[in-house]
Specification:
Chain lengths: 349, 349
């Protein structure tokens, strides 16, 4: 396994260097924080793979283990809430490494004054999506901080799953020529949260795509080595996922603008606000890298499921340019797709 | 397994009912929140055991799975910091159910403006204690919230361990006549954090007992059924642990004041501030319930380890009074030891 060598931070860290919002964006600063501060310290073979879930060999099983904290604002938004997001997010992180989610833990940090009825609604959402996916919330913790020391509610979910795919999914198995599939329209979550946050004077039917991908992705697990890699493109959007592949494997990635499934309302918000839809977070979509000959069967399996009906091929792995993602635009030009640098929408998940 | 039936909250929750600081105290309100809101929703056989770690049968293994979020203030205190606390806390929750900690996940919630050097120190502490215990931090997540939306840094750690005890430790195995052992002086963590927080004009050498109990408790795992149950008495202190035993099993518990190991400085702070040392949090102590005939061997094993050198028997399980914990005081009277009601020291862990 290839592990990038990056200079580490240490004693030379100056007091004036501080955490910025963009350190949580899923973009360049997030990667810098992980590569320079966190990985050199915690570094081990499992963490260094930087997959969505750690894969642990626990004879005779392969287990997947994944954690995420959720700080989304507002805590209720069209299509979901922080509870649904927390449980689906962890389920999806397990599902994209080919694991069936079994048990989930849940850590609440609550701000003094949070209405119990609000917590009650959030817990209902969590339990509903856990039930639908067939996993259980088996461990929990509740901390309370004084008013003003947190923003209503933060939730950590950590999940344990059993890997069911015959061959392990990994960024290391991707080859030039492989096709890139997205399981539906992009940017819906970020756009819906943005609208909810701004109280925009526009009527919109836009809702977050927040959903458990387990049943959808499970349908591909019998395809074996044809499926190389899966990832749910959350913070940093599709651009972050594709750049991670290009960067870690030193391949190029070509995507084709006219094939990108984007809802008209999301497109409108992007034009209005100057957002790049490729940078927007998704919470119910997967990027699948598959062998060229398997594309038809993958698409037909995905389209049998309501969450996959807008699946499409959006690009492919190419040998060059090394480490870069580019898009063939509708104008016939090529545009480099980079990682987001700042964070246009902090606290999106 | 006995599961208490308690009325659940639901539709009747009124908007005016809100989260109070004491819901995070480990005392009465914490129990009410869990029993009335969380358990009825998430309820399943594993969660209902309410052990420090969920025990999952994963043939041929028994796994332990535990989560905790940490919000301690100040984030650096004599004897530790939030990072050391987060990793030891999860290690200890696994160790008290007889599990060897294997992998840990770590979720950071960072406030914009946190110095990177501060995060760096905290990560060093986490890695140090994980290494000492022989476990690895294999999965992580970092979220950033805007200045004022969190208090510096909150950490969630979730751990996965392999149960190594021959017979499973459980509150259900406790019998009248069993002896109650504490592995050292009580209240040190809460008292040290209290002093750090108040900037008291007293010189004190008091430090938090924050430590990994894995090596200490592992020495007892060969004793089999003689060890009934273990628990690390953190929030809510020894009073909370003993009340949970008495309440869930409907036994009485007698403790003897003169046998309680308490440092003079902790005693002094309790007298000055009106704290009950039995309500103070510990972060490097275990309560062990053991069969009467095994007490000598248990104490001799514990005392071989630096963290166990002040181990002592502090009481025993009695048939009556049902569900109550009482203390034989130095004055020859008996005093009921109840759960803490408010929270004298919020954000102690």
């Amino acid at each position: 396994m290839k592990v990038q060598s990056t200079p580490r931070w240490g004693a030379e860290l100056k007091e004036k260097e501080v955490i910025k919002l963009a350190h949580g964006s899923g973009g360049k600063l997030t990667r810098e924080l992980i590569d320079k501060l966190i990985r050199p310290k915690f570094g081990n073979r499992i963490l260094d793979r930087l997959e969505d879930a750690a894969v642990i060999f626990f004879p005779p099983h392969l287990l997947a283990f994944s954690t995420d904290s959720y700080v989304v604002r507002p805590i209720f938004f069209p299509g979901g809430d922080i509870g649904k997001l927390a449980v689906t997010g962890t389920i999806n992180d397990l599902a994209v490494v080919g694991a069936q989610p079994l048990v989930i833990s849940c850590g609440f940090i609550l701000e003094e004054g949070l209405p119990l009825a609000t917590l009650n609604r959030i817990i209902d959402s969590m339990q509903k999506v856990a039930c639908e996916t067939g996993c259980e919330i088996v461990a929990g913790d509740t901390k309370v901080v004084e008013k003003g020391a947190a923003d209503q509610i933060f939730i950590n979910t950590t999940g344990l799953g059993l890997i069911r795919t015959k061959s392990s999914l990994s960024i290391e198995r991707i080859k030039p020529g492989d096709q890139i599939i997205v399981t539906g329209t992009i940017g819906d979550h970020a756009a819906a949260v943005f609208v909810a946050r701004q109280n925009l004077p526009v009527k919109t039917s836009l809702i977050s795509d927040c959903a458990s991908l387990y049943r959808l992705l499970e349908s591909l697990w019998n395809l074996g080595e044809k499926i190389r890699f899966m990832r749910d493109p959350t913070r940093g959007g599709i651009a972050a996922t594709l750049n991670e592949i290009a960067n870690r494997r030193n391949f190029g990635i070509e995507i084709v603008e006219e094939t990108l499934p984007i809802q008209p309302e999301v497109k409108g918000i992007c034009e209005l606000m100057g957002f790049d839809p490729l940078h927007l977070a998704n919470e119910g979509k997967a990027i699948i890298v598959a062998s060229p000959e398997s594309v038809e069967i993958v698409l037909s399996l995905l389209k049998q499921h309501p969450l996959g009906k807008n699946s499409s091929v959006i690009g492919r792995i190419v040998e060059n340019p090394l480490g870069l993602v580019y898009m063939k635009t509708n104008l016939g030009t090529k545009r480099i797709i980079d990682l987001p640098v700042g964070d246009p929408l902090p606290r999106i998940c």
